[in-house]
Design a protein that fits this description.
about 400 residues; alpha+beta; 18 strands; binds adenosine-5'-triphosphate; binds magnesium ion
């Protein structure tokens, strides 16, 4: 089994997926920019360094030349900007896997909503906009409040909530560099994910994670310590409709083999509304959260599913797992921490990971990455207890920089 895997070294969790592929016995041919470090090289049978992994035409040409005379079984990518080019190469080389058209449904936020709506599922009212004129006519469809966001965005970049025409006037200058955007009805509700490892679009493993607060708020306010909490018990009435929605969305869009990551809302009246979906794993440590939830290795299971269409791990859910991202107060380097000793005294047995930046470490740009200045991961079989521990980490542990 020979597999081409795009960008095995970036983002960092791609190294884990590369390891997974090697561990299920695949010969991994990596393609990316930059050199793989020795630890990653152990899992790569070969590596093609390209000047820019984002230059689709160039990458396709180079891979084509590089593979000449070798047979390949799969071409895979788990990073959002590369899912289309992987599909283009599969089609070009006649390999199995999701088609370009199917992948576009997971990548283009307007197309995905149209396809999901056509399956009879609830999506926000929305329109594709390419000009200021489009925006004003779209707002007649969506009403206020509305959301404006790039068609192929990530990380809530260039995403704004607007509550009035005046608000929109203020936001428009910030959208000028975005060629295509989606204007949507704003959905007021709790935000969750629905994640899967799928075989032919059918979930072999499913997971739900709750955001505290909703993603846009965590991405817009530096003082917030964002929390993501995986739900151990998926059999709860308030989640049922969201999980059902997720299964139907994947079926409607033609999910294939691999991981999917959907976001959805639950309104106060119980209605569930589709947010967005991607045919790749969630970022911001979502895969680690699932692994800690069931004590399994989904990096490896993704590889198994992608190469042999089998799933080999336990589906038992043992814990609610919370990740709490911290952002220091002040600029520069971390100077000191407060509350961490007491936090350990209270919760030590339940803390499974601590990557909080220690004094001396330069701060990360919280706008660029949700990982911010590090995070804590805690877990507990009881939801309320897990939530309490996660919120305590948000409020009682503080980092300072100067
Ligand atoms: N129609 C909507 N109603 C309410 N909130 C929304 C809506 N669309 C987007 N949001 C908020 O903005 C966030 C970012 O939007 P979306 O998920 O579409 O973009 P993204 O940049 O791809 O996100 P990600 O951070 O997952 O990469 C959502 O998670 C949600 O909190
Ligand atoms: Mg999103």
């Amino acid at each position: 089994m020979r597999v081409v895997f795009l960008s095995p070294r970036y983002p960092p969790e791609m190294r884990q997926f590369t390891r997974g592929l090697a561990e299920v016995g695949a010969e991994v041919l990596g393609v990316g920019d930059g050199h793989p470090e020795p630890e990653l090289k152990r899992y790569l049978a070969d590596y093609l360094e390209v000047p820019s992994i984002m230059n689709e035409e160039d990458v396709i040409g180079r891979v084509h030349n590089w593979l000449r005379g070798r047979t390949v079984d799969h071409i895979l990518a788990n990073w959002e900007p590369l899912v289309i080019v992987a599909a283009r190469m599969r089609e070009r080389f006649g390999l199995p896997g999701m088609s370009v058209d199917a992948v576009r449904g997971f990548r283009d936020k307007q197309l995905m909503k149209e396809r999901v709506a056509a399956a009879g599922l609830r999506v926000p009212r929305s329109a594709r906009v390419r000009s200021v004129k489009d925006v004003w006519s779209a707002l007649e469809v969506t009403g206020y409040p509305a959301i404006i966001k790039p068609i192929s965005g990530a990380g809530s970049a260039d995403t704004y909530k607007v509550s009035s025409p005046k608000d929109m006037e203020k936001v428009l200058p910030y959208m000028q560099h975005v060629a295509e955007a989606s204007c949507e009805e704003f959905i007021d509700g709790e935000e969750y994910t629905y994640d899967t490892v799928s075989i032919g679009g059918v979930p072999a493993y499913e997971s739900v994670t709750r955001y505290f607060p909703n993603a846009l708020e965590m991405r817009s306010n530096e003082w917030i310590s964002p929390i993501m909490l995986s739900v151990r018990d998926l059999d709860q009435p308030h989640l049922r409709a969201g999980i059902e929605l997720g299964r139907k969305v994947n079926a409607a869009l033609g999910m294939g083999d691999g991981m999917s990551h959907m976001e959805w809302f639950r309104k106060p009246d119980g209605e569930v509304v589709f947010g967005e979906v991607a045919c790749r794993p969630g970022g911001a440590r979502v895969v680690d959260l699932m692994n800690y939830t069931s004590d399994i290795d989904l990096f490896r299971e993704w590889a198994r599913v992608s190469t042999t269409q089998t799933f080999g791990a336990s589906r038992e859910r043992k814990y609610n797992v919370g990740i709490i991202f911290k952002r220091a107060q002040g600029h520069g380097r971390i100077s000191h921490m407060a509350g961490l000793t007491e936090y350990y005294q209270r919760y030590r047995p339940h803390i499974v990971e601590d990557t909080l930046f220690r004094p001396g470490t330069p701060r990360r740009d919280w706008k660029q990455t949700l990982l911010s200045d590090g995070y804590l991961v805690v877990r507990h079989p009881d939801w309320d207890e897990a939530k309490r521990m996660a919120f305590a980490a948000a409020t009682d542990v503080q980092l300072y920089a100067s």
